[in-house]
Amino acid sequence: MCRIAGLYDPESPDVAGKLLRMRDAMHRGGPDDAGMYLSPHLPLGLAHRRLSVIDLSQAGHQPMCHDMRPLVITFNGEIYNYRELRQNLMDAGEHFHTATDTEVILRGYARMGMDILPRLRGMFAFAIWDEEQRELLLVRDRMGIKPLYYGLQGTRFFFASELKAFRQAGFPLPVSLEAAAAFLQTGSIPVPLTLYENVWALPPGHYVRVQWRQDQPVVDEPTCWWCFTDLLATAQVRAGSQGYTPEAREAVRQALIDSLQVHLVADVEVGAFLSGGIDSTAIVSLLRQIGVPDIRTVSVVFPGHELDESNYARLAASHFHTRHEEVVVTLPDLLGQWEDMLGVMDQPTIDGLNVYMVSQAARKAGLKVVLSGLGGDELFGGYPSFRWVPRLRRWQASRWLPLAVQIAAWRARSVDRRRRLQAFVQQRQDPRAAYRLVRGLFTDAELQEMRWPSPLPANPYADLTDAPARKTPASPGHDRKDDKIEQVLTPLQYVSYLESRYYMRNQLLRDADVFSMAHGLELRVPFVDHHLYAAVWPYLDAAYRHGYPKRLLVEATGSLPLAIIHRPKQGFTFPFADWIRQEPLCGQIADGLHRLSKTLDLRLEGLCLPDSHWSRTWALFVLSQFVV
């Protein structure tokens, strides 16, 4: 796992100096080594910071050059099946000089071109520069586990794993009010937007080519090389929901074991986050079942708070005989590191600070790699959205919907919930309106009431990539094969798709990467694997209907303590609902909202009432830290 960057800047007399600042702005994500490549023909360079996990020797130094072709790669991530691919390439006549997965990508691309991409299993973002063709290729993994941002300003082109690299280089980065509005709508900034104008996130499962013509960068539209519809090529998924049988359970079990085993590929020790929930406990259970002898686990403790899960984590650790460590987090702990958290955050989010704290503890314990249960809720139906979205979709088709929603709004316990219900009625023709009702933060009407100073994204859960308003030569492409996916998926498969594509990609995975890598910790997500999705989706509806949420995961895993199986559902989050009402955080939030209101001339009165969800107040406060 690493950090990567690149720059083309014909107006700068010191490309190397700028690139060095970009690279070293991300030093925490790659503390073990650093490198740079400068083109002999153009004011262009690639840079790399390394967190060594596979082949710890200097042979893994990057950027890496091909010995026979004018190709240079800078790579962030892990290719879990690199040994198999390496052997295939050797059988085809390739000769390797390292034991790295980086060289596998480089030689695979040199031999097969873009055909190497579907063969890669892992998490990755990389850039390959072809000196002869004067062409740069940027690639991002299927699910968006590893980040990659790029920008175009006149004749200057740049890319990096973190947005802070662009700030450190001194590039002008005006805030995008469209992106800020999307953040308030959803709690995260949806791909391909970033907080800054003319800077984009490369969509997951996409690549983009940049070609130089008369020394001018020409940025193609990003091209989709994988999307969720590709799962339908699997016969079982294409057939829709299948019966839940012992054979189905065994098929899912084998897929879980397969994913876990490939995620253990490393030349360093691999630990695990353990919250005491079903997802993280299932990972630890499977680790024990496949024979991992010594399992190290880490969890967060909130002393005396109802969100504290430490008793369940200790139960799981004792049950599976792990070496367990805890990190105690209180409000003073949060405030003591708030400035650093904000700098790490890179762009606004309402989540992720929990990952910052537990990652810090894991790294202090000597771990470089941990497994996380992230993605289990999205894949196995753990969220309330799996109950509510199909139900709301049925209501959308009813002529009694307006009356039903009026009754529900009247009975709603909070003003913001009533407003979301009213917005749902107005968007009843949109199949994703039900999802926005469950997941959304502020409605369009509320942003208009706030006097938001820019046009609003029509629907943050629609594909912004296809919006005509994106007038730029770098306008990211749209995986149009997913357009009609609702028509071919079962109701619960569709919710899994929505949660995976939007909430998991835009928020959870981005936050997990940026906050773990801030401590030089590689976070791996065995549940976020396209092979596992193909194995689970055919049985998701049947298992959910005839049991309880996550029945498929519980029964395929086996050996989980009953107290954990039947415990109340609880997210892995900080107790912000209480903390934002305590000093000094309460005063800091009030000051932040006041400054945000003055800077953007907003009216915030009535939008953060005592009965509102804490995330609304927190979102406005976090945004104030970036735009004021």
From TrEMBL:
It comes from Thermoflavifilum thermophilum. It catalyses: L-aspartate + L-glutamine + ATP + H2O = L-asparagine + L-glutamate + AMP + diphosphate + H(+). The lineage of its organism: Bacteria, Pseudomonadati, Bacteroidota, Chitinophagia, Chitinophagales. ATP binds at V300, S372, G373. GO terms for biological process: asparagine biosynthetic process. Pathway: Amino-acid biosynthesis; L-asparagine biosynthesis; L-asparagine from L-aspartate (L-Gln route): step 1/1. The keyword Transferase does not apply. The active site is at C2 (for gatase activity). SUPFAM superfamilies: Adenine nucleotide alpha hydrolases-like, N-terminal nucleophile aminohydrolases (Ntn hydrolases). PROSITE patterns: GATASE_TYPE_2 (PS51278). This is asparagine synthase (glutamine-hydrolyzing). Keywords: Amino-acid biosynthesis, Asparagine biosynthesis, ATP-binding, Glutamine amidotransferase, Nucleotide-binding. InterPro entries: Asn_synth_AEB (IPR006426), Asn_synthase (IPR001962), ASN_synthetase/amidase (IPR051786), AsnB_N (IPR033738), GATase_2_dom (IPR017932), Ntn_hydrolases_N (IPR029055), Rossmann-like_a/b/a_fold (IPR014729). Residues 460-482 are annotated as: Disordered. One of its GO terms (molecular function) is ATP binding. Residues 2-213 form the Glutamine amidotransferase type-2 domain. Transmembrane segments: none annotated. PANTHER family: ASPARAGINE SYNTHETASE, ASPARAGINE SYNTHETASE (GLUTAMINE-HYDROLYZING). One of its GO terms (cellular component) is cytosol.
